[in-house]
Write a structure and sequence with these properties.
The structure is a single chain. This protein has no helices and 12 strands. The chain is mainly β and 210 residues long. The protein has a 12-stranded antiparallel beta barrel with strand order 1-2-3-4-5-6-7-8-9-10-11-12. It is globular and about 55 Å long. The model has no long low-confidence stretch (mean pLDDT 91).
């Protein structure tokens, strides 16, 4: 969920995933994406992701994986790649994701369709503390950058997170306020970029095995 811009704004992003392990260190997943703004507009899209585990965080110095995802929506196509790094040190879990995304957005201008290209680069860092084998608490930070093709913004988010995991069920929650805009091609409000992003984002993920 995203909330808070210069004017009243609410957006609910929903994803339903079906994940399949292909044996070894490879898995794939399929997503149905539903993005709903509270002005009544709804976008429905489809995504396919692939993950490859290269190093194990227990057997190796760090965990290392590669991630690729293709997203198709009515007015937008995106290709996303990630480098996934994690490290367990005692009761603490560190995770770093380096993300690069290339996108093409189609808009109708008069009787012609115009395509705009954009590139996003994101740096995620999260630190979680294990309270017990099933519960973790911590914080997450996210630096977002976009070029379209000139630089549009560089915005920093950070906030608390938690997770609960049992044998067949897992849930994760994150609250990410926008801390500051390091750069914006548009005007900022009290140091925040409310043109490209909202004041805060809240995310809940859960999964179960069957």
């Amino acid at each position: 969920m995203e909330s808070g811009k210069e004017e009243y704004y609410r957006k609910l992003l929903q994803r339903v995933e079906f994940e399949i392990g292909l044996g070894g260190n490879v898995q794939t997943a399929f997503y149905l994406n539903v993005d709903q703004e509270f002005n009544g507009s709804v976008d429905i899209g489809f995504s396919n992701e692939w993950k490859w585990k290269l190093l194990d965080p227990v057997a190796n110095i760090v965990g290392l994986g590669l991630y690729g995802e293709l997203t198709l929506e009515p007015h937008e196509t995106e290709i996303e790649g990630k480098i996934l790094i994690d490290k367990q040190t005692g009761a603490f879990l560190h995770a770093v994701n380096i993300v690069v995304e290339q996108g093409w957005e189609q808009e109708l201008e008069g009787s012609e369709i115009e395509t705009e290209t954009f590139t996003e680069a994101q740096l995620h860092y999260a630190l979680a503390y294990r309270i017990n084998p099933t519960v973790h608490i911590g914080f997450e930070s996210l630096l977002r950058n976009e070029w379209a093709p000139e630089k549009e913004y560089s915005n920093l988010f950070a906030g608390p997170c938690f997770s609960f995991a049992s044998e067949n069920f897992w849930i994760n929650g994150t609250f990410l306020p926008q801390i500051t805009s390091l750069y914006s091609a548009d005007e900022t409000s009290n140091g925040l970029d409310l043109i490209h992003h909202s004041k805060f984002e809240a995310r809940v993920l859960f999964s179960f095995m069957f």
